[in-house]
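Sample 3 of the quickstart, ligand zinc ion:
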Amino acid sequence: MAVAYRLALVDDPCTDRDLPAPAAGDVALTVLDRSHALPASYAPDDLVAAAEAGLGGASGTKLVREALIDDLAAMRAAWEAAGLSISIDSAYRSYAAQAATFQDWVARLGLEAATVRTARPGHSEHQLGTAIDVSSPGWSGRFGDWARETDEGAWMAEHAWEYGFVMSYPAGAESESCFGYEPWHYRWIGRQVAADHRESGLVLRAFLERFAGG
Ligand SMILES: [Zn+2]
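Result:
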């Protein structure tokens, strides 16, 4: 099964094209990259507000899949126990929202620069409803290294996997992950799979390519 899934993917996934991502054994494990995309019609059927995990304020209004609420609630409790203040800046993004954002960038920068700046519609893990962009108060933006320069980012880099969340686009791995370093972007794959991923030492994309069919 896992081999069949890998064979359905192209060998040069960081080339921009719009191939359908093959159905994974579990949709949460779907491989998305610059070549493989979700269809415009895909939306999770169990989206709920992050407030269900006890997150307050603007973070609580962001939408995530109900499947990850228990793990997100446990991670939020761990943040509080560690005295950390972490917010969710973005979670579920529909295909239509991705398309609108991409068109905005194209209008401002042109197609080539826009493609570097943001995922083309269907290629974002946010459409799965399992990706979150996190930050902390006082963080000045996305140009520094949140994982190294803040206690909150360092905690996420060290502990998020214990709650099933994995950094999809780590530093120095662009040729394998197909996107630039995003220390704020975490994707939920479940606790057991996240532990297996950590053990593998692979970039998430490469790990899922082998795992998703199983
Ligand atoms: Zn993100």
